Amino acid sequence: NSNFLKLAPEADHFISNAVSFILQDEILFTYRDADLNAFSDCVKKIKGTGRFFHSGKQIMATLLEVGVDNDADLLEGLAKQVAGLSKELSFSSNPNETIILEINRMQELTMELRQNAVDKQRVLSAILKSREFEGEDYERLRIVIKDINSLIDHTNFNFERLEYLQNTFWFICSSS
Predict the structure, then answer these.
(1) How far apart are CA 94 and CA 92, in angstroms?
(2) Nearest by Cα to 14 from 4, 2, 24
(3) What is the mean pLDDT of residues 6-25?
(4) Residues with Cβ within 8 Å of residue 112, at least 6 apart in sequence
(5) d(CA 108, CA 13)
(6) Which SS3 state, helix, strand or coil, does residue 80 take?
(7) How many CB atoms are closer than 10 A to CB 117?
(8) How confident is the model at residue 85 (pLDDT cuts 50, 70, 90)?
(9) Exposure string over 91-114, b if 16+ CB within 10 A, otherwise e
(10) Cα separation of 140 and 119, whole Å?
(11) Cβ 146 vs Cβ 64: under 8 Å
(12) What is the sign of the dihedral through the CA atoms of 20, 129, 75 and 73?
């Protein structure tokens, strides 16, 4: 089981969707309650490679790979929002309550992304320990774990930046 995030239609929070994976006789079964971008992106990636996928393990590896890529895109979008908020705060001599509320919202989103990355890291670690995947698929999953570690590092940086913005906000408010 693993969680996959997608941006809510209002674009102010993420929706977490649990996905169950079952591998039986080289066939992958998934159970989910939502239509997720990772699955349609996975189909596009499979069709785009032109190679034949011989097992459910290959498809599962691709799904996890694409899921982490989608998480990276969500984090990149959030980082751009944080940068925009930083500029807004820099040019504000009298920041209002909406800025601190936005900082708090972005902290919550960053926490969700970090929790999701840690969840995928746990799942992939268990898969790699199981020795079910071998060869090229095993190496692909090892690279995905490295990508997840980079995501976790980037979420930590985002937290630090948001904490700095929060401290700046309070400093400006107390100086006014």
Answers:
(1) 5
(2) 4
(3) 89
(4) 5, 13, 14, 16
(5) 8
(6) helix
(7) 24
(8) very high
(9) eeeebeeebbebbeebbebbebbb
(10) 18
(11) no
(12) negative
Q: What does the alpha-carbon distance between residue 67 and residue 3 come to, in Å, rounded to a whole number? A: 9
5 CB-contact burial (10 Å; exposed 0-12 / middle 13-18 / buried 19+): buried
CA distance 167 to 172: 9
pLDDT value of residue 176: 66
Instruction: Give CB contacts under 8 A, 24+ apart, made by 52-59.
Output: 54/26, 55/26, 55/28, 56/23, 56/24, 56/26, 56/27, 56/28, 56/29, 57/23, 57/26, 57/28, 57/132, 57/133, 57/137, 58/137, 59/28
**pLDDT tens digits along 118-175:** 999 999 999 999 888 888 889 999 999 999 999 999 999 999 999 999 998 888 888 7
Q: What is the rounded CA–CA span in Å between residue 85 and residue 61? A: 36
pTM of the predicted structure, to 2 decimals: 0.90
